[in-house]
Specification:
The protein has 28 helices and 19 strands. It is an alpha+beta fold. Helix 5 runs parallel beside helix 7.
């Protein structure tokens, strides 16, 4: 992400964390959240599970806000901002080692005004101070501990610090005292360093732009970069730890659809299969853990994040549409069923994450000893389960914090160790018998696992993350013909738009314990606008199209950079921070700018309104130099470019929504993988919807029969009235 970097300052204090690499901080395994205790500091009044986790610390924590900055200015103390999230393993470690320690807390309280931030609630704050820390050459990750002047300007930052010097890192209280001493004795140099950081932060959101929309060659360059990094042995990208490449997989599927190059499809299929077979996928309960610590997808960090499962479920559905491989449908269904079972609030919203830790130990909820299979399963079933899921007495997982005592069995992460046919043959079963046996074992083991201490749950509802899952649920519901998924998407969408939106139509970021708060960011509006379009194209209820246009209007009204194009991360009337960032780069989630551009392209194809296309083209021109420099890091924006340059067509249905003929036409399209194609439906006589969506204007029944109009750039072929004819017309687009 960082195109610019400051030279490290000469102050001795800035060398303290030279050993702090991003490896530790990005090891974001999850931790238990206890919100039942009576809080003793200001965080007790917050709703964030992460902040509540720190409510009983002896540290005099402030939440992010004016009160903390006023206190710093009043006392002249620097500010310590400690940023993390509830499912971050090393955040929990540092809390236990230092923030719960009265002696360390006393030093913090004496020397600093201490502020705790949940990065998932305040990604704007996190982005600024993470960027600053990386600019100072200190790596990045969480926990992120940044020291600020009373005006909020960062002058030093780092990630995890042990309580005493270890692992090549200075001890936490040593860091605190040396920074406080430097603040008193070298303040002029610190302020000068802060000014340099602030200037660099401002430059980081400046983009020179281009006079023209980039060419499709940039999309091809991103594809080539991805293919060049492909791991032919295990899938995904070379190296470890290994993260699921959600956006790249989707881009390669689209590129395969355009060009028909089998190598692109091979990358996608091989990676999807390897991920599904590995321990990163929960073989019993469905759903994906955050990432694999090894290159084989075998041993995960055991947290499960809503945004990962949303993006991966969609890619598996799309791959099923392309290949009809039942494996991809099964993984998509199991993932979405996991979300419905464990990550859905009764009111409809989707929860954020579950932790890696249970009973203070990493992964213990998910791993198994060999002897447990004998205790829970029949002998023949146990033998098959061991052979298929790779269970041994030695195990394949070692918790560095809790080593296995000598003589005890090791722990096993379940994974597909060999094909079912081979495992069946090894234990003398037919493959048909093995399928029945394995499913019985899976249910037995899952039921037993559910009796263990459940991992900590972060049950806050984030509007942006919900947008990702709503879109995936809606898409899966229509593509797989599964009403449960579409119903869940509608319920969650109604919750977000009903409970997390202000009177002026803008979203709030977070909801928990009956409270919605914090003005929504660009990502929230872009992801939810995209989800509303997915909902509309799934059930054709015009209210979702209206909601999408309202959210698009909010983006263009409050987030647009009118001077050069693109969208800021924060609204024009949001709390004033050090700088107002724009970011076209993808991370674990797609870029807000990328998805916003996609939304504008989709709306332009449905309405023909020039303003939507102008907004998309303006953003693409603004970020052209970045797209050219780092195409593989800006995939979501390049997918918007691909949608703009390739006219994938528009489909207008005319018919009564409940009639079998209409359903047949719609199903013929919904079952196909048609990236970039937009669709709308008009009930006969519904003039209001025809005016709302100009694509529908002039579309009528054919001899009183339901019909579909296949169009390109609003120029339509003769209507068709059968599913077979519609499939043929779509294939010829």
């Amino acid at each position: 992400m960082m195109g610019r970097r400051l030279t490290r300052a000469c102050l001795g204090v800035f060398l303290l964390a030279s050993g702090c690499a991003s490896d530790t901080s990005t090891s974001s395994t999850e931790v238990s959240v206890n919100t039942s205790k009576t809080g003793q500091n200001r965080l007790a009044h917050e709703t964030s599970p992460y902040l509540l986790q720190h409510a009983d610390n002896p540290v005099d924590w402030y939440p992010w806000g004016d009160e903390a900055f006023a206190k710093a200015k009043e006392t002249g103390k620097p500010i310590l901002v400690s940023i993390g999230y509830s499912s971050c393993h090393w955040c929990h470690v540092m809390e236990h080692e230092s923030f719960e320690d009265p002696a360390a807390a006393a030093v913090m309280n004496e020397l600093f005004v201490c502020v705790k931030v949940d990065r998932e609630e305040r990604p704007d704050v996190d982005e600024i101070y993470m960027t600053a820390t990386q600019m100072m050459g200190m790596g990045g990750g969480w926990p992120l501990n940044v020291f600020l002047t009373p005006d909020g300007v960062p002058f030093f930052g780092g990630t995890y610090f042990p309580p005493a010097g270890a692992y090549g890192r200075p001890g936490w209280t040593d860091v605190l005292r040396q920074i406080a001493e430097a603040w008193e004795t070298q303040r002029d140099q610190i302020l000068q360093q802060g000014d340099q950081v602030l200037a660099a932060l401002n430059r980081n959101s400046e983009f020179p732009g281009s006079d023209t929309v980039p060419e499709v060659a940039l999309v091809a360059a991103a594809v080539d970069q991805a293919m060049g990094r492909f791991d032919p042995k295990f899938g995904g990208f070379n190296g470890q730890p290994k993260f699921p490449p959600h956006q790249t997989l989707e881009l390669l599927l689209r590129w395969y659809k355009r060009l028909g190059d089998a190598s692109h499809l091979h990358f996608v299929e091989f990676t999807l299969r390897k991920m599904a077979e590995g321990g990163m996928y929960d073989q019993l309960g469905g759903g994906f853990h955050r990432y694999s610590v090894d290159e084989e997808w075998l041993v995960p960090h055991f947290e499960k994040m809503l945004y990962d499962n949303a993006q991966l479920a969609r890619v598996y559905v799309e791959a099923f549409q392309v290949t009809r491989n039942p494996l991809y449908e099964r993984i998509a269904r199991e993932t979405l069923d996991y979300v419905l079972r464990e990550m859905t609030e009764p009111e409809g919203g989707f929860r954020s994450a579950t932790d890696a830790d249970s009973d203070g130990r990493e992964g213990v909820y998910f791993v198994w000893k060999d002897a447990e299979f004998d205790e829970l399963l029949d002998a023949k079933d146990a033998a098959l389960a061991r052979a298929f899921w790779g269970v041994t007495a030695a195990g394949n997982f070692a918790d560095p914090h809790h080593p296995t005592p000598p003589g005890e069995q090791g722990m096993n992460v379940l994974h597909v160790a060999q094909p079912l046919a081979d495992a069946a043959a090894a234990v003398g079963m037919s493959e048909a018998e093995a399928k029945v046996s394995l499913e019985k074992s899976r249910k037995t083991l899952l039921a037993h696992r559910q009796g263990r201490t459940y991992p900590g749950l972060d049950d806050k509802i984030l509007s942006g993350w919900n947008g990702l899952m709503i879109g995936s649920m809606a898409y899966a519901g229509r593509a797989l013909g599964e009403p449960r998924y579409l119903d869940a998407a509608e319920k969650a969408g109604e919750f977000v738009l009903g409970e997390m939106r202000t009177k002026d139509g803008r979203l709030l970021r977070t909801h928990r314990a009956g409270r919605s708060k914090i003005g929504g960011f660009l990502d929230d509006h872009a992801f939810m606008a995209s989800a509303c379009l997915d909902l509309y194209e799934s059930n054709f209820d015009p209210k979702w199209f209206v909601a999408a246009t309202e959210l698009a209007a909010a983006m263009n009204g409050f987030f647009t950079d009118e001077a050069t194009g693109g969208w800021f991360h924060t609204a024009s009337d949001a709390d004033e921070l050090l700088t107002r960032t724009r970011n076209p780069y993808d991370g674990a989630e797609p870029s807000g700018n990328g998805v916003a551009t996609q939304v504008m392209v989709r709306l332009s194809k449905m309405t023909g309104e020039a303003g939507y296309q102008a907004a998309a083209e303006s953003a693409l021109r603004t970020f052209t130099p970045v797209l050219e420099r780092q195409p593989a890091g800006t995939v979501s924006t390049l997918m918007a470019l691909e949608m703009l340059l390739y006219s994938a067509g528009e489909i207008a249905f005319v018919g009564r929504p409940g009639d079998s003929g209409t359903r047949g036409l719609v199903a013929a399209v919904h079952e196909e993988y048609l990236p970039g194609t937009v669709m709308a439906l008009l009930a006969p006589g519904d003039e209001a919807t025809a005016q709302l969506i100009p694509l529908l204007e002039g579309k009528v029944l054919v001899d009183d029969h339901e019909a579909a109009y296949v169009c390109r750039n609003f120029t339509c072929r003769a209507p068709v009235t059968t599913a077979e004819a519609l499939r043929q017309a779509v294939a010829e687009l």
